[in-house]
Design brief:
Strand content of chain B: 5-15%
Oligomer: heterodimer
Radius of gyration of chain B: 24 Å
Number of helices of chain B: 2
Order of helices and strands of chain B: HHEE
Number of helices of chain A: 15
Shape of chain A: globular
Strand order of the largest sheet of chain B: 1-2
Chain lengths: ~475, ~70
Amino acid sequence: MLTGLSVHELAGRFRRREATPTQAARAYLDRVAALDPKVKAYMTVTADRALAQAAAADARFQSGRPLGLLDGIPLAIKDVLCTRGIRTTCSSRILENFVPPYDATVVAKLLDAGAVILGKLNMDEFAMGSSTENSAFFTTRNPWDLARVPGGSSGGAAAAVAADLAAATLGTDTGGSIRQPAAFCGRVGLKPTYGRVSRYGLVAFASSLDQVGPFGKDVRDAALVLQAIAGHDPMDSTSVDVGVPDYSAELEGGVKGLRIGIPAEYFIEGLDPEVEAAVRAAIDSLRGLGAKTESVSLPHTEYGLAAYYVIAPAEASSNLARYDGVKYGLRVPGARDLIDMYSRTRGAGFGAEVKRRVMLGTYALSAGYYDAYYGKALRVRTLVQRDFQRAFERVDVIVAPTTPGVAFKMGEREDPLQMYLNDVFTIPVNLAGLPGVSIPAGFTQTGLPVGLQVIGKAFDEATVLRVARAYEAATSWHERKPELTP
Amino acid sequence: MRRELDGILTYIDKLRAVDTEGVPPTSRAVPMTNVMREDEPKPSCPREDMLANAPDRAGELFRVPRIIEE
């Protein structure tokens, strides 16, 4: 089955002429048609375009000139990244019919590398959420248990890779939106350093935190996709002009002599005992592979979440002011005047969580509260960042749980604050702008995946991926697949 | 919604417990000053492409409800 293969395995089949990009695209489209009615990962399937792109890749292989390892590989994209001519909804009513006139830089880079784009993936509205339950259209299901959520906000991107509905996908991570669903769905999800990957064409949520990254069936695939999307972009002034190493070349270097920090603040009350046991066992395996582990302290961890829920809504309230029903997106007709048109359009176009965050953000930024909320949160952000700087003077990477618990049932977390607490271990990494990956580290008694998080120094994705790969090579969690039948 | 926002604001109030005396604010993780480039004219998105998503238009203009009161 071509859909069961990783990107690097499929690329090998293409090179050995054992399969063609068109065969792979058809296999994935057939599987999406059969299984996505259950998983609900896709917002939009672009079958005709995908087959045309696959035919072009076929021709390149036939002429003996394939572009690279992603040539002809079927991928899918979170619906927050602009795709020229393909609607990009952010899973929001306000963008339900929005068709971007340009491609996000990361999408253009994948197309330039010859990738076949199968479609766009469901998410929490405007990437605000941890379960896809905030999608205005439907909730994506966890392939390991269809009654549970896949995590979020990149839930469609995680579920698609876990259910073999795409070879790899792109998601975005503002407070954990790649790593948390990767943990819930038992796959690899990498958030690169802030500035490593261009945000041009990424619909903005919180601009100082948002970052694009890959989901893969294994660590090698995540490295391959990162390679294709990383690098400076003149269209994004916050993308950083530093060299991009060859991630695949450094992947098998092992962890012998590497210093791994274990943060005491991530093993707290509320951590699921099965998650803790799996993560502690993973740390033992890394030690067995030759790494040196030591305890580190990140004392401001418990304040990260509170700082984030000031900073991210503040930035969101500003970014989402653009949805005014004038140039694109929804406009509710029948307004008396312009102000009435704004309020009708935004009232009907945004869901409850988006409204909640816009209100929180404007409140935190308002005169009289600015210093107490926004100013204070930015200072706490400095302290969170300094915690990591101090720890990284002693260690090369930090290893911790990705989430306090495993995938929860749909409808189980109705209180927004309870939902936010999911991201307590991922948010500090965004506040500090660091790279982090979640990789499969075992399963609970009931068969739900557990994620292990590896956090690195700024722009040191190579070491993060090397540690992840060393652990993966010593285990077989990533080979386990959920059972799904049409 | 009011009750939920109250709950979130109460949680956020835990920031008050942190001593931030003398700590500078961080607005972005990667330090960056102004990014400059040459001021050269380049083609941008075609007008028709940008107007194609307009909810209401009049020729080459976006049409909006009345702004100025009579």
